[in-house]
Fold:
Amino acid sequence: GDSVTQMEGPVTLSEEAFLTINCTYTATGYPSLFWYVQYPGEGLQLLLKATKADDKGSNKGFEATYRKETTSFHLEKGSVQVSDSAVYFCALSAPGGNKLTFGGGTRVLVKP
Amino acid sequence: EAQVTQNPRYLITVTGKKLTVTCSQNMNHEYMSWYRQDPGLGLRQIYYSMNVEVTDKGDVPEGYKVSRKEKRNFPLILESPSPNQTSLYFCASSSRQGRAYEQYFGPGTRLTVT
Structure:
């Protein structure tokens, strides 16, 4: 079945550092790929998405590119802020499907 | 404001005492689902519903029931809760945006079963 693997955290960074969170997936066909963010005490919010190979999703300074050849969707941000401290989830859905398959989540802590 | 609401937000109960967690959305979405979140496991789908009176099992349905009598509501029922159901629960609803279904999540319900 479908699966998503992402790097374990926690990831601790200083403000203005570069952030990368690796995400790889296993799925048949061409799934849609997502990054969700969960701030402390809140539900999940969609951060960005990509629906086909070579698509780049971007939002709030975060970017991720759908790489079919490496089955990856790594999340990057060039200069993190304290407010980016959260848990980040990589997820996929099958073509035309509703169900999300999630990775285990990566906690990111940004220190001033 | 478009939103998914869940109640209660926090619940502590004892083994075997039936409980219901409510979920409601105001976006007229057809699709709704329940997930549980456990450390290191991410979120796993419990049940989902494609529309009124249409429900189906997700990946971890054991010990749970759902119903979908109205489009906006999708309650999660634990008939006889057990300690291994202690978890953080999220309800979600979705609409199709292009090729992907964009899901909106509720704030979560933290359940402790003693």
